[in-house]
Amino acid sequence: MSDHDFNLHPQLAQDTHFVVDLPLCRVLLMNEARYPWLILVPRRENLREIHELLPADRQQLWEESDHVSRVLTALFQPDKLNIAALGNIVPQLHIHHIARFQTDASWPAPVWGKFAPEPYTADAATSRCQALRTQLQLL
Fold first, then answer.
1. What pLDDT, on a 0 to 100 scale, did the predictor assign at position 50?
2. Which of 51, 60, 67, 100 could lock onto 80 through a cystine, CB 3.0 to 4.6 A?
């Protein structure tokens, strides 16, 4: 499958900023400035669950998740890293990686639904995406 066959769910496109394409996944920055929050979306069509990936893609997903986790930890030193594949609203397979801090607005509760999102300014989004892209391209 080529990347031309990949379609990002409109809700993910609306709620995120593009960071980089890794070998399997598109990496997106959630437009929520309170949390360093990345989303990995395997560039495969019609997937809802991790077990639907081919075995080689499943292994690649875990490698990329590990890499993203290490980058978030190195850049932000979170107290906890939350990783989840929920998909209750957006059915397209996507995996959240959220750096959490005991001082963040939602701690220790989940980040979903507690507050209206606090979007990045255009400059802050560009800066954050560039810093992440630089580190993530070292894969």
1. 97
2. 100
- Let me know: does 37 contact 101? Beta carbons within 8 Å: no
Give domain limits for the chain: 3-136
Hey, what are 74's tokens? Answer: 């190195």
Residue pair 95/83 in contact by the 8 Å Cβ criterion: yes
pLDDT band at 139 (very low <50, low <70, confident <90, very high): low
Q: Which CATH number fits domain 3-136: 3.30.428.10, 3.40.50.2000, 3.10.20.310, 3.30.420.10?
A: 3.30.428.10
Model confidence over 76-112: pLDDT tens digits? Answer: 999 999 999 998 899 999 999 999 999 998 999 999 8
Q: Are 83 and 65 in contact (CB under 8 A)?
A: yes
